[in-house]
Amino acid sequence: MESVHLTARSDGQAVTIERVADGSWHAVEDDQVVGRGDISGRPDGRMFVSIDAWHCAVFDRLAGAMLAELPRPLYTLVGEDDLDLAAHWERAGFTARRREWECLVPTDPGLTGLGPALPPPGVTIGPAEEGPLRALDRVIRDEVEAAVGWREMPAEVLPRPAAPDLSRYTVAAEAGEYVGYVRLAAVTRQPRIGLVAVRSGHRRRGIGRALLARVLDDLHRRGIEAVSAEVNESNTAAMALFDAIGARRTGSNLELALEGSERHG
After folding, report:
1. 240 neighbors 205 (Cβ within 8 angstroms)
2. Which end of the chain is more exposed for a tag (fewer CB within 10 A), N or C?
């Protein structure tokens, strides 16, 4: 293990910062781990950092050690109501970049107002097949990157798996090709809408509403009363859609960024 600092103190004992693995740091005090720092890559190439420490001094030392070695830009997520954690990251040089709302979406058609919400003529809603789904995913990603950029997508969008779980996808098809999909994220307690996407040339036709209507109705029939979702507040179309179907905002996360190419010395 590599020791990089020896001077931080949390309770009268020297704290050592050690890089214990590629992308992982420990703060050690009197042979006990008193803080951890990690980095993780996202599908769009961004690097996210996280630190878990009890003491401010330990957090600052971990941040200093990590930022001295990592290239910019760097990102982190903080619950907007966690003012102390946000202050720690701001002290390290991070600034707020965007807000994502955490929403709870009812599945009951009587509450969402979606009812049957039929797709437009010529569009069918149903289960996914891997080949056409991969083709649609490539198109969607290219369209997002050409428009707002993939970094504006939800920060928790999951990496593309080598073999996608097709049971989590509901797709819209027209003229023999997929034009939109809803993906449910893999969670243990409550279903989560991971992504709602429609190809740019097929938007404003009610395809997104029809996809959500099918997915939410299927969950409602299984006895699931609500699903969670994250919505970027700058995505006004998505915010309007979720507000219209009765989504309740339960909290928000701030994405903080440390820009530039230099490293702290």
Report:
1. no
2. C
